[in-house]
Amino acid sequence: MSRLTWILVVSLAVLSPAGATVPARDESPLPDETALLADVLENQNQVEQAREAYTYTMMVTDLKRGSRGDVMRGTARTYEVFHVAGKPFRKLTAKDGRPLGPDEARKEEGRVAKAVREHRERHSRQEAATQPGAGERGDDDVTPSDVLRLCRLANPRREEFRGQPAIVYDFEPRPGAKPRGRAESWIARTGGRVWVDEQAKRLLRLEVQVRRALKVGGGLLISVGPGSSLVFEQALVNEEVWLPTYAEIEVSARLLLLKGVKQHQEIRFGDYRKFSVETSEDVGAPQP
């Protein structure tokens, strides 16, 4: 036995005391992915509807990559977010952890109040014109449920996610899926992975990567390049409802065929509170 082999044997003996066992890999059968996806999609629709009943904070941090690829934190902005007639509104409350000054805060209150008022007026006109749901989502709005609805799952395996068991799937656009709106058609150019809580039948994490360039205006207005990505996470909040907790966005795009744009943001959600007359006054929105 060589000296090197002997050292390895002794090291393993020290690191693996008698009686110690390697944790068993979970070999239990994987669930039927079609049935599981249907349950996850139904639950995700509920999550997206439930979020509209809450006001919450959203901290957006701009990240920059150094010459060696390391990530450096830039400006952080904190928003108070609430939903009115299906549309989210953000009120800036702090920059880099410092609350806005009186003048800036007053100006922001006025901006948000005006935006909410205009949205309510449009929404009322659309309802009067018997266009149910019109205007509640823009053509560029895509939700995790849209990704689940338009994609198919493959390559299932069991992994741990933040200390809890999860099933991970790769996903790709589902042939024949019919997108609703421009942004959903972009999903056909993406792929990624999804982490699912098998017991709760809930989405834990979603990673979306752009695999083919996304173009608006035939590429004359904006072209989002391959490699752009989105990460989205959610969890059980206040032991009562599943809601978003984290997102990360990395975009490499070209505007008007001239200007190259790179954006890398980290978004953290928190301080969820049920939306009410009192909380609407806190965030500066007109009372519902």
Explain how this protein is built.
It is a single chain. By secondary structure, the chain is an alpha+beta fold. The chain has one domain. The chain has helices at 3-15, 33-50, 102-128, 144-150, 182-186, 277-283, and strands spanning 54-65, 71-84, 87-95, 98-99, 151-161, 164-173, 190-197, 202-210, 214-216, 222-224, 229-237, 241-255, 259-274. Strands 1, 2, 3, 4, 5, 6, 7, 8, 9, 10, 11, 12 and 13 form a 13-stranded antiparallel sheet that branches. Helix 2 (33-50) runs antiparallel to helix 4 (144-150). The protein is globular and about 60 Å long. The model is unreliable at 1-24 (pLDDT under 50).
Beta fraction: 35-45%
Q: What would the average pLDDT be, to the nearest integer? A: 78
List low-pLDDT spans: 1-24
- Strand segment tally: 13
Individual helix count? 6
Helix content: 25-40%
Task: State the distance separating the first and last CA atoms.
Answer: 80 Å
**SSE class:** alpha+beta
Main beta sheet strand tally, sense and closure: 13 strands, antiparallel
Q: Please, how many domains?
A: 1
Radius of gyration: 23 Å
**N-to-C SSE series?**
HHEEEEHHEEHEEEEEEEH
Shape verdict: globular
In short:
This protein is α+β, with helices and mostly antiparallel strands and 288 residues long. The chain is built from 6 helices and 13 strands. The N and C termini lie far apart (80 Å).
Characteristic key phrases:
alpha+beta, 13-stranded antiparallel β-sheet, 288 residues, disordered N terminus, single chain
